[in-house]
Amino acid sequence: FWRLWRGWTALEGCCWTCTRDKTMPLRDIIGQSVAVRSLLGTLKSGRLGHAFLFIGPAGVGKRTSALAFAQAVNCAAPMDDADACGVCPSCRRVERGVDIDARVYSPTRQGYRKEEAKEIRNDAHMTPNAGKRRFLILDDADAMGAEAANALLKVIEEPPEMSVFVLLTEKADRIMPTIRSRVLSVPFRPLTPAEAAAVAGERLSGGQVDYLFPIARGNMGEILRLSEDRKLKELFEDVEAELFERLLKEASASPTRLAEEVGALAGRIDLSTAEDTESTARRKSVAAILEIMMSMIERKHMTVGAGVGEMKRGCAILETLMNTIQTVRGGGLTESALEAMAINLKAKAGAA
């Protein structure tokens, strides 16, 4: 679904860039306390490794953390805990995305090719411009073919003293074993909705994050991108209208008709991958719509100050939605599951 609106265009060649991501000191990274402690421990030990592998889902802060790590290493006036000060010229360059000692590389549509790997290898031998170390951050490192991996293996195994590699990946098993054995792995976990809301800050409301979180699977970058899409906003409005004006109120429409309308909303979401069958893709879309509904129910009925009756009703509705999601994901007949859900929700519409 998000692929339809992402608007991303790959370059023909592998590119490096000084990132425009929001960069912050390690202490300000949200939701990754284990990874942050590991990196700060490495800094305080004084034994900086030559290569790291950041492993975790997309959009959880791997690239931001890699830049924060580079910021801390090259900081002119580090804090007592070895983290970056955030205000010295070196820190400011990283924050503004203009520090050529912190390079982020991205693969082409064909992944990292041998030629691009050789270019990265050559960059690793360049003397840092102003910092103590030169950071080479490889986004989607699992997109590295065997030839490219072999071209980089030697420099990762025995890199120049002034260079540090940081490989970012969602799929560590796709990294060549000979490379994995020569890097320090740092795990990153999925963000919770509350953590995603904290990362979004003033850019998005809590309600927007609630709606977007299940569809974007917690990917913060996708959440921010999707928040700007008008078609998606209209979809959320339709879901809310369907839930609160139809499903949870006494209406003349039959459960079958209501189930069809919810199914039609799911038809506007494409979460499929190349490996999915048509029925699997359908189940994914329906489950996503139901997860959005759960977020809406929690926001409307499960807030502080809600009455006992309202809380009880909200719990009953959430249970119905959750059971339906389990049925759909478990391979049950989607349309029958939606019709049963509509019947249960209508029965609970007037429940106290």
Can you offer a commentary on this structure?
The structure is a single chain. With 352 residues, the chain is α/β, with parallel strands linked by helices. The protein is 52% helix and 8% strand. It is built from 15 helices and 6 strands. It has helices at residues 2-5, 33-45, 62-74, 89-96, 114-124, 146-157, 177-180, 193-200, 206-216, 220-227, 230-247, 255-266, 278-301, 308-329, 334-348, and strands at 15-17, 51-55, 102-106, 134-138, 163-169, 184-187. Strands 1-3-4-5-2-6 form a 6-stranded mixed sheet, with helices on both faces. Strand 4, helix 6 (146-157) and strand 5 form a beta-alpha-beta unit. 40% of the residues are buried. Residues 1-13 have low confidence and may be disordered.
What is the strand and helix layout of this fold?
Elements: H1 2-5, E1 15-17, H2 33-45, E2 51-55, H3 62-74, H4 89-96, E3 102-106, H5 114-124, E4 134-138, H6 146-157, E5 163-169, H7 177-180, E6 184-187, H8 193-200, H9 206-216, H10 220-227, H11 230-247, H12 255-266, H13 278-301, H14 308-329, H15 334-348
Parallel strand pairs: 2-5, 2-6, 3-4, 4-5
Antiparallel strand pairs: 1-3
Helix pairs in contact: 2-3, 3-4, 5-6, 8-9, 9-10, 9-13, 11-12, 11-13, 12-13, 12-15, 13-14, 14-15
- Order of SSEs: HEHEHHEHEHEHEHHHHHHHH
Strand count, sense and barrel status of the largest sheet are: 6 strands, mixed
Kindly provide the radius of gyration, computed on alpha-carbon positions and rounded to a whole number of angstroms: 24 Å
Strand order of the largest sheet: 1-3-4-5-2-6
pLDDT averaged over residues: 82
The rounded distance between the terminal residues' Cα atoms is: 37 Å
Low-confidence stretches: 1-13
**Strand residue percentage:** 5-15%
Q: In DSSP terms, counting alpha (H) and pi (I) runs of 4 or more, how many helices?
A: 15
* Total count of strands: 6
Shape: elongated
